[in-house]
Amino acid sequence: xxxxxxxxxxxxxxxPALEANDPEDKNSPFYYDWYSLRVGGLIxxxxxxxxxxxxxxxxxxxxxFSQKPR
Length: 70
Hints:
It contains two helices and no strands. It is mostly helical. InterPro entries: FXYD_motif (IPR047297), Ion-transport_regulator_FXYD (IPR000272). Residues 1-20 form the signal peptide. It comes from Erinaceus europaeus (Western European hedgehog).
């Protein structure tokens, strides 16, 4: 029963995506430039990753692994 429900959920979630691939009106507020959105997301992820590595390597984060649980 769970498998049937999962397939139905995937089918219902995928139906709006079928029409969204070919927008008719590019001036519509629901038209997205997917390429720019993807590039912006990758740049944001890269910057956040670099900041995380810099913070870990800076030595400001004092993590003590030898602490015993209470």
